[in-house]
Amino acid sequence: MGQDGPQRVAVVTGAASGFGKAIARRFAADGYWVGLLDRNGEAAEAALAELGGPQHGAVLVADVSDEAQMEAAFQVVASRWGRLDVLVNNAAVPQRPTPIEALSSAEWDRIMAVNVKGVFLGMKMAVPLMQANGGGSIINIASVAAIRPRPGLNAYCASKAAVIGLTKAVALELAAAGIRVNCIAPGPADTPMLPGFMADPGSESGRQAFIASVPLGRLIRPEEIAAAAAYLASDEAAAVIGAVISVDGGRHV
Ligand SMILES: NC(=O)c1ccc[n+]([C@@H]2O[C@H](COP(=O)([O-])OP(=O)(O)OC[C@H]3O[C@@H](n4cnc5c(N)ncnc54)[C@H](O)[C@@H]3O)[C@@H](O)[C@H]2O)c1
């Protein structure tokens, strides 16, 4: 990022854990002010302390599926920093493998509310701030599950496919305004979310099955997702619009 321009600002949702924490750390190291948005304020404060403390950013406590809470969080960004350059819509919830006929409507709604409506609300709140800046970069975290599903993860796979569709539609809407919208589709990774996808959470056999599904032969590291986010946020990616970047050790192939 340029040394001479105004300080750049990035908001990362789900920044208290896993990929979001690594992405927030990477943006702070790259010189951004970072809004660590998460519903878990205590864990987000710990993540902020880990990346260097309040001179690098602030915690924004909000549930991404709640419009009023999201509006309030982005108002804090506007009043505190007066601009927004990058939004990473990363917060999501996993799904325990469930046959479609056994899936409750409540579970379907819960997954869609966080994983899809949360991405919609993030973009809805961020776009006016980016328009006021004359541009920006929105990075939505999808999943290889949208491209190469696993049986039983029906609602989760559908939610991530929706993120890809939403990304492409909004990328076209905003391209002329200089706001680039792209996706990262990670593969299975070593984060607290992974056991949430297992029939027997936390079992070694469940973990080994995920590792065996990755041609690279290991789980994806949060820093590898952060590196892709740093690229998509940068001017190096000026012509990258509506893309789905797989960072999955070859799992999608
Ligand atoms: N871990 C994987 O194997 C994997 C693979 C592909 C894609 N992904 C995707 O990557 C992203 C990050 O996953 P992770 O593995 O780092 O997960 P994680 O569970 O480690 O972290 C998720 C964070 O999101 C927050 N969060 C959850 N619901 C929220 C809500 N309603 N409002 C605000 N914050 C909320 C949690 O508090 C947590 O801090 C997700 O979009 C996930 O679907 C993960």
Notes on the protein architecture:
This protein is α/β, with parallel strands linked by helices. The chain has one domain: Rossmann fold (3-Layer(aba) Sandwich). It is 43% helix and 15% strand. Helix 2 links the parallel strand 2 and strand 3. Helix 1 crosses helix 7. The protein is globular and about 50 Å long. Bound molecules: nicotinamide-adenine-dinucleotide. Nicotinamide-adenine-dinucleotide (NAD) binds next to helix 1 and helix 4.
Q: What is the radius of gyration computed over CA atoms, rounded to a whole number of angstroms? A: 17 Å
User: Major beta sheet, specifics?
Assistant: 7 strands, parallel
H-E string: EHEHEHEHEHEHHE
Count of separate DSSP helical elements: 7
Q: Indicate the structural class.
A: alpha/beta
Q: What is the CATH level 1 assignment?
A: Alpha Beta
Query: What would the principal axes of the Cα set say about the shape?
Result: globular
CATH-level-4 superfamily name: NAD(P)-binding Rossmann-like Domain
Each distinct ligand: nicotinamide-adenine-dinucleotide
Estimate what percentage of residues fall within beta strands.
Answer: 15-25%
Averaged pLDDT:
96
- Low-confidence parts, pLDDT < 50 over ≥5 residues? none
**Strand segment count:** 7
Give the CA-CA distance, first to last residue. Answer: 33 Å
The CATH architecture name reads: 3-Layer(aba) Sandwich
**What count of domains describes the coordinates?**
1
CATH topology: Rossmann fold
